[in-house]
Description:
Number of domains: 2
Helix content: 25-40%
Structural class: alpha/beta
CATH superfamily of the largest domain: Type I PLP-dependent aspartate aminotransferase-like (Major domain)
Order of helices and strands: HEHHEHEHHEHEHEHEEHHEEHEEEH
Number of strands: 13
Strand content: 5-15%
Mean pLDDT: 97
Low-confidence stretches: none
Amino acid sequence: MKFNLEEARRQDQEDSFKAIKHEFNMIENTIYMDGNSLGLFPKAAEENLLKVLQAYKSMGIDVWSKTNPPLFLYQDTLAELMAPIFGAKASEVTIHSNTTVNIYSLMATLYQPTETRKKILVDDLNFPTGRYTIESLLRTKGLNPEEVIMEVNSRDGQFLEEDAIIEMMTDEIAVIFLPAVLYRSGQLLDMKSLTQAAHEKGIIIGFDCSHSAGSVIHEFDHWDVDFAVWCTYKYLNSGPGANAALFLNEKHHHLPVGIQGWQGYKKDKQFDLLNHFDNVKDASGWQTGTQNILSMAPIEGALKLFHEHGMKNIREKSIRLTQYLIDLIEEVLSSYGFTIGTPKEPLRRGGHVALIHEEAIRINAALKDLGVLPDFRAPNVIRLAPVAFYVDYEDLYHTVRIIKLIMDEKIYEQYDNKRGTVA
Length: 423
């Protein structure tokens, strides 16, 4: 029997990677299970933001060039920290804008349709900003999205099958864009095999890694992924709306930049302010306007935690926590009508567990009032993210205990069956 407080505490004591809550700004009297949506703020990130703010207050415009490192090239400093987490070269990564803008820029670079190869393959379960962006790009090219976009459909509304995706890799596909981890179910796709299959067909392939960044292992160079995008405020813990990141395989650095901007210009001539665009021939050439320094500063502090503790250790702890949570749900909650919408196989899931129930909206609301902070995703999913840095086994025990209490005492019936603006 795993639903036992002493057992949870024993696992915490014996855990080789103990939660490092002391390094985060924890919310008082709250079990934070929503790091897959917005991670908690590390103290190192806060300190780095305050350091940059102080430099700006005391230096004014000289903050661009006289800090250490110089903030005018801050994206390169952050790329050096970010790239190893994704198995990439620093020259292939840059910190820039937001995920939607990065999708547009990279797709505008890599999508070069021909008469026979003009389709874009996506899926029906990914977070929709990718679809919105691709449709927008196609319209600027005078193309009809309904004629160009091909969709891999989930058979059950929860998971995607790699075999079904590969079957749709025909000679008319130019680019494939898929999630690394599905935002509802937490399914982790096999990026390596999908990339290999795409390249055998001469297809460019990229991934939205917003729900995998910081929770699973990525090996972009080893897998030969063409491109990827991700936000930094979920498992990477850089704060609400902090700058996103992009990866562009070095074999594509010769291509025209999708959104040309002055910050992508060659640095030795950038302030010549010439009208002919001549970009840096690496990922930083895909920078556009002036960097959002105050949104970048927390990223530096947050990334240092990943280097200090190691992505391998973080991933192994994440797998152990999600497995323990799945075991508790099956042992304690299955009799209340709950099912698990996340793959049971450790290598096929990301960092969160999807808990499915017809009363998910109301149960989610009750959890928040009782000190557990998860989130809801339509139509019936409560997402629970046991982030390795600041969630431990005892937290998971109490999370399941409180859900059981909500069901036993029908506390959820006190709430409206209506989600909030931010679910």
